[in-house]
Design goal:
16% strand, elongated, 205 residues
């Protein structure tokens, strides 16, 4: 029987030489808002206590770790907006955001660990890691940075577009959000190629 690992560590990072970053994204599934990626490099494999997959943390924990990661690591953030998502598709837009996050790092890492089983083409060695945000400390940290950055962007949109519940659902297809789509219509921040938004556009035409 496999032994359950207690959480992410640096065991994957230690398999490689040179400067290593972890890359992850937030926001592939929502109906509204951008997709955000982050790339994180820890100095000498030293990370704040408590880092794990962002989905397993409370909002307060994520925000606290976000500050600590920014203070203790090199961090790059990349964003692909709604227009790019609709034009390219969500996968290609995600890869664009990941590439931008990587390109923000200085110096550029020689190895990138990317969460999932597919990755963008980067100017370095790339290793995909399925479930990476639960295995690699660098990827887990990137998941936190991407999530907090995106949540903050969605919070800022609430002032101009109230009533969709973005302060709670950050653009995901909750019943509150779907009801608001039907009642209030589609905003410039909705992904028109996503089925619920496309249906709302058709019904409101």
């Amino acid at each position: 029987m496999a032994v359950k690992r207690p959480g992410p560590d640096f065991s994957i990072e230690t398999r490689f030489k040179g400067l290593i970053c972890g890359i992850d994204e937030a926001g592939r599934g929502p109906l509204a808002g951008p997709v955000v990626a982050a790339a994180v490099v820890f100095d000498k494999q030293c990370a704040p206590v408590g880092i794990k997959d962002s989905k397993l943390l409370t909002r307060t924990q994520r925000e606290d770790l976000f500050i600590k990661i920014k203070n203790q690591a090199a961090v790059g953030v990349g964003i692909a907006d709604v227009a790019e998502i609709d034009d390219l598709n969500i996968l290609k837009a995600t890869f664009a955001a990941m590439t931008r996050a990587y390109d923000q790092l200085n110096p550029l890492p020689s190895v990138a660990l990317v969460d999932g089983n597919r990755s963008p083409k980067l100017s370095c060695t790339v290793q995909t890691v399925i479930g990476g945000d639960g295995l690699s400390m660098s990827i887990a940290a990137a998941s936190i940075v991407a999530k907090v950055t995106r949540d903050n962007l969605m919070q800022n949109l609430v002032v101009s577009y109230p009533g969709y519940g973005w302060e709670r659902n950050v653009g995901y297809a909750t019943s509150e959000h779907l009801a608001a789509l039907a009642l209030r219509g589609v905003t410039p921040h909705h992904r028109r190629t996503f089925a619920p938004v496309a249906r709302a556009l058709k019904s409101n035409a």
